[in-house]
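TA notes, week 10

Several of you asked for a full example with nothing omitted. So below is the full record: structure tokens for the whole chain, then the designed sequence directly under it. When grading your own attempts, check the secondary structure regions first.
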């Protein structure tokens, strides 16, 4: 999981670098009009923070589900199909988080931040709530029957 986090972070940094290069003329116009460096930089930092937060949520949900499946017995084996399903869902949603399918853009106003959700945001919510609910139900079931 640590490898996925490092890889996703590097890819997000590269994508934001590409977006900065694509908006070079817009940034130059903003500089000519007197925009401060933080006014130009903040939307990109906000986009990085939003994408990183979604990747963190994805990794927390899948790690928690895997932990609950092997808890309390460390030698308990999870089936290969279930491991593949958890890993595949995690990878798919990390790819969604890296692209613009989960977060389109981040708008920064004087009153706060507005994260514009992407096309697959509802699917992410179903994934996250489903994995966390399943994890909690399995954990409660295991703890209830072990007492």
């Amino acid at each position: 999981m640590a490898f996925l986090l490092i890889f996703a972070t590097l890819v997000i940094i590269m994508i934001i670098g590409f977006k900065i290069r694509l908006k070079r003329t817009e940034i130059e116009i903003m500089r000519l009009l007197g925009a401060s460096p933080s006014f130009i930089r903040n939307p990109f930092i906000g986009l990085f923070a939003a994408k990183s937060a979604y990747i963190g949520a994805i990794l927390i949900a899948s790690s928690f589900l895997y932990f609950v499946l092997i808890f309390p017995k460390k030698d308990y084996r999870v089936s290969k199909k279930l491991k593949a399903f958890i890993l595949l869902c995690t990878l798919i949603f990390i790819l969604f988080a890296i692209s613009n399918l989960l977060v389109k853009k981040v708008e920064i106003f004087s009153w706060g931040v507005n994260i514009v959700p992407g096309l697959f945001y509802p699917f992410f919510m179903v994934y996250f709530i489903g994995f966390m609910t399943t994890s909690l139900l399995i954990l409660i079931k295991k703890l209830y029957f072990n007492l």
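The chain has a mean pLDDT of 85. Use that as a sanity check on your answer.
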